[in-house]
Amino acid sequence: MSTTSPATEVRKGLYGVIADYTGVSKVMPESNSLTYRGYPVQELVEHCSFEEVVYLLWNGELPTASELEEFNARGRSYRSLDPGLISLIHSLPVDCHPMDVLRTSVSYLGTKDPDQFTTGSEHIQHVGHSLLAQLPMAVAMDIRRRSGKGIIAPDENKGVAENFLAMVFGNGPESPASNPEDVRDFEKSLILYAEHSFNASTFAARVITSTRSDVYSAITGAIGALKGPLHGGANEFVMHTMLEIDDPEKAAEWVNATLDSRKVIMGFGHRVYKRGDSRVPSMKKSFLNLAERHDGQKWVEMYENMERAMDERTGIKPNLDFPAGPAYYILGFPVDFFTPLFVIARIAGWTAHIVEQYEDNSLIRPLSEYNGPEQRIVVEIEQR
Questions:
Q1: Fewest beta carbons within 10 Å, which of 77, 234, 334, 362?
Q2: Confidence at residue 5, expressed as pLDDT on a 0 to 100 scale
Q3: Is 129 a catalytic site residue?
Q4: What does each C-alpha distance from 261 to 43, 146, 209, 258, 264 come to in angstroms?
Q5: Backbone phi, then psi, for 367, in 5-degree steps?
Q6: Of 196, 321, 336, 353, which one is the catalytic site residue?
Q7: What is the pLDDT of residue 31?
Q8: In whole angstroms, what is the distance from residue 288 CA to residue 61 CA?
């Protein structure tokens, strides 16, 4: 077998490789802070709606009041329940992963788009806006049909976060949609998940875009990448872990036993952040607020005991998925739907990157260092 040439450096996973320019987001090395178009995400979380952040990612600047009003009106105009999508979702197995339903929904919506695809930013944002309206409805329908509940129609008078919560949980007094604080804490999670530079799913979308394929194909590929537990699926695994441990007093023992067996503990560490994920303080604050309002102290203790055990043993800090998992559980979402919630938010970032890729496109086609057999002769089958 041939070996790698000493002059060739192979970066597994493209670790440390700078593939292109982007003006969408960056983790600033001095502050260790994730920024969207230059704004620290922790400030956006405190001062902006999700829609304002989407506008920022797509247009480069925060909107004025009139610009936001127009933007919201356009986005909400796409909230119409497609009978074919309803039929498709209800025809799918109830035991398939919700990300499979979401991936299939995007492919279906791509077949229904009456407009011929163009690479212009206005058309790409049109598709992004449409998906930002349609996919929350698809997720809500899927959640409710699995528990035998009927569809709740969208409301054009509500923002993305409130409308989605109402479509999932209804508008009764016990629904998170009826509690402005719950709506706001959920909305903050959408802002934090909205964008994160050249992560695996975004890079997948940009690779597909670089071939001059359409937006639906790029988003479908991105969803496929996000499904993996080493990327978007981590928030589900965090909560499955907490439910498995069940007793906060056993958390440290579980962490140490898992580390002793050299297994990965989801929700900790991040390739980009060197001093801890800058999104965690904001998400943890929302998680703690939700826990206080909804009798979730058990999950707070679980979080703190696991966090402490990991820090003492490894020094590795939590990433965004660690507080997001129990926050979504407290809100009442089924665990298998945590990653689709990620998709709803990340449509914003994916769309911004697809626009950026097309504005200065070059086919993404890396090389590889071959380490297979040297060239050889094919022998006739009778002589093998």
A1: 362
A2: 53
A3: no
A4: 40, 36, 41, 5, 9
A5: -95, 170
A6: 321
A7: 86
A8: 31
Closest CA to 123 of 223, 196, 209, 14: 209
**270, 277, 336, 353: which one is catalytic?**
270
Question: 213 and 220 in contact (C-beta within 8 Å)?
Answer: no
Q: Which residues contact 303 (CB under 8 A, 6 or more apart)?
A: 242, 284, 287, 322, 323, 326
- pTM, 2 dp: 0.93
The dihedral through the CA atoms of 315, 239, 180, 40 has a sign that is positive
Question: How remote is the C-alpha of 316 from its chain's centroid?
Answer: 22
Active-site hit among 20, 113, 155, 231: 231
Q: Which residues of the chain have pLDDT under 70?
A: 1-7
CA distances for 53 relative to 12, 57, 85, 183, 369, angstroms: 33, 6, 28, 16, 41
Cα–Cα dist 10/4, whole Å:
9
What is the model's pLDDT at position 14?
81
State how far the Cα of 190 lies from the Cα of 149, in Å rounded to an integer: 25
Short-list 311, 319, 76, 332, CA closest to 185: 332
pLDDT at 1: 46
Letter for the amino acid at 349? G
Tokens, residue 382: 């009778």
Which residues have a Cβ under 8 Å from the Cβ of 18 and sit 6 or more positions away?
Answer: none
What span, in angstroms and rounded, lies between the C-alpha atoms of 1 and 128?
Answer: 47
C-alpha dihedral over 221, 226, 229, 234, to 10 degrees?
180
- Is 294 an active-site residue? no
Considering Cα of 353, then 271, then 229, then 37, what sign does the dihedral take?
negative
Query: One-letter amino acid identity for 274?
Result: K
Q: Which two tokens stand for residue 143?
A: 């959640």
CA distances from 177 to 292, 331, 340, 342 (A): 17, 10, 18, 18
pLDDT tens, residue by residue, 61-73: 999 999 999 999 9
Please give the pLDDT value at position 7.
64
Its sign, for the CA torsion 116, 119, 121, 126, is: positive
Note if 270 is an active site residue.
yes
